[in-house]
């Protein structure tokens, strides 16, 4: 079960980099990062958890900026 979580997280991150839309790239990478957090917790692999907590925050910040620019017309 733990391996499947890791493979799923990896597939999400790999798929994210194939996206043409930056927003979709961020969404899939965000889901992948959150899945890796679960994987890291299951393994008690704290470096995996820490790294993906940071990337989750970055993806959320960037998605918020994308959403804000769409609402304000790119300003």
Write down the oligomeric state.
single chain
Low-confidence runs of at least 5 consecutive residues: none
What structural class do you assign from the helix and strand content?
Answer: mainly alpha
Query: How helix-rich are the residues, as a percent range?
Result: over 70%
Q: Roughly how many Å apart are the termini?
A: 45 Å
- The gyration radius over C-alpha positions equals 14 Å
Q: What is the molecular shape?
A: elongated
Amount of beta strand: under 5%
* Total domain units: 1
Order of helices and strands: HHH
Mean pLDDT: 94
Task: Give the total of beta strands.
Answer: 0
Helical region count?
3
Main β-sheet, in a few words? none
Account of the 3D structure:
- With 75 residues, the chain is an all-alpha fold.
- The protein has one domain (2-72).
- It contains three helices and no strands.
- The radius of gyration is 14 Å and the shape is elongated.
- The mean pLDDT is 94.
Per-chain topology:
Layout: H1 2-16, H2 22-43, H3 46-72
List keywords for this structure.
mainly alpha; 75 residues; 85% helix
Structure, briefly:
The protein is mostly helical and 75 residues long. It has one domain. The chain has three helices and no strands.
């Amino acid at each position: 079960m733990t391996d499947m979580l890791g493979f799923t997280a990896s597939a999400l991150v790999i798929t994210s980099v194939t996206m043409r839309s930056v927003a979709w790239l961020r969404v899939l990478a965000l889901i992948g990062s959150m899945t890796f957090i679960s994987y890291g917790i299951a393994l008690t692999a704290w470096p995996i958890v820490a790294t993906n907590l940071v990337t989750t925050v970055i993806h959320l910040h960037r998605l918020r900026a994308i959403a804000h620019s769409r609402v304000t017309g790119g300003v």
